[in-house]
């Protein structure tokens, strides 16, 4: 089944929506490049039932602090920027990370449609997108939406891209680099588990475990600090 015209229109960059599927912040410029953090897709959580992200047009740090992904992103960014993750709240508030009108940080997603979980594909989503399965939708995005992501990279030249979700390693590589190339795998220990980080040498891309929570995620302070060290070692000029 082909993509619906309405769906294609909704995720095509336009004057009113330059970065469909993305959350906020500053994509930067080649002269003043930004750090990008990309998740897999816009999600929903228990927090969203009380206050939708769309109800905060500024995407304020105060709102973002309600979500585990953003809190862990703030911790990682604080460490990368030479600060302590223990004061991640203060750092995020000071720099207005990902807020509308702020500078230096940009947050987006590989796949543009909001869902409640990585496996979800409801009848409403079938009707919205035109795809019977999530696999069909994702394959279409690889062929048609990822080219827009590469155009963003070419235009804005981010100094660092952090992809979150190692099970989608190939997709991050294809979306940002245009093709898959063999990364360097670096293992860290956190919460009693070995976790993998991937560094694509010679490019701004690194891929880390997801930031939303769970034992397999990049969620413990020890893991986040070690991940920041690895990223800085790969990109010492950040």
Task: Give the tags.
238 residues, 10 helices
Describe this structure in words.
The protein has helices at 5-10, 46-50, 61-64, 68-80, 88-95, 123-129, 134-144, 146-156, 169-177, 221-234, and strands at 24-25, 35-39, 105-109, 160-164, 184-190, 193-199, 205-208. Mean pLDDT is 92; it is low at 45-53. With 238 residues, the protein is an alpha/beta fold. Strands 1-3-2-4-7-6-5 form a 7-stranded mixed β-sheet, with helices on both faces. Strand 5 (184-190) and strand 6 form a beta hairpin.
Question: How is this structure best summarized?
Answer:
With 238 residues, this protein is of the alpha/beta class. 37% of the residues lie in helices and 15% in strands.
Write the layout of secondary structure elements.
Layout: H1 5-10, E1 24-25, E2 35-39, H2 46-50, H3 61-64, H4 68-80, H5 88-95, E3 105-109, H6 123-129, H7 134-144, H8 146-156, E4 160-164, H9 169-177, E5 184-190, E6 193-199, E7 205-208, H10 221-234
Parallel strand pairs: 2-3, 2-4, 4-7
Antiparallel strand pairs: 1-3, 5-6, 6-7
């Amino acid at each position: 089944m082909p993509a619906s015209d309405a769906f294609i229109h909704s995720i095509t960059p336009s004057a009113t929506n330059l970065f469909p599927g993305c959350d906020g912040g500053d994509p930067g410029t080649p002269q003043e490049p930004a750090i990008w953090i990309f998740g897999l897709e816009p999600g929903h959580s228990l927090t969203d039932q009380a206050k939708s992200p769309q109800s905060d047009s500024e995407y304020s740090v105060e709102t973002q602090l309600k979500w585990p992904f953003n809190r862990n992103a703030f911790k990682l960014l604080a460490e990368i920027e030479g600060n302590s993750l223990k004061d991640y709240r203060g750092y995020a508030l000071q720099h207005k990370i990902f807020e509308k009108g702020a500078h230096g940080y940009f947050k987006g997603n590989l796949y543009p449609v909001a869902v409640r979980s990585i496996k979800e594909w409801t009848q409403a989503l079938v009707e919205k997108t035109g795809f019977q399965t999530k696999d069909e939708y994702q394959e279409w995005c690889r062929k048609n939406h990822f080219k827009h992501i590469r155009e963003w990279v070419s235009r804005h030249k981010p100094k660092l891209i952090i992809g979150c979700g190692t099970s989608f390693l190939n997709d991050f590589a294809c979306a940002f680099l245009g093709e898959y190339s063999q990364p360097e795998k670096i293992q860290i220990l956190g919460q009693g588990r070995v976790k993998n980080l991937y560094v694509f040498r010679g490019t701004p891309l690194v891929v880390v475990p997801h930031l939303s929570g769970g034992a397999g995620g990049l969620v413990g302070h020890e893991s986040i600090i070690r991940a920041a060290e690895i990223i800085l070692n790969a990109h010492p000029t950040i």
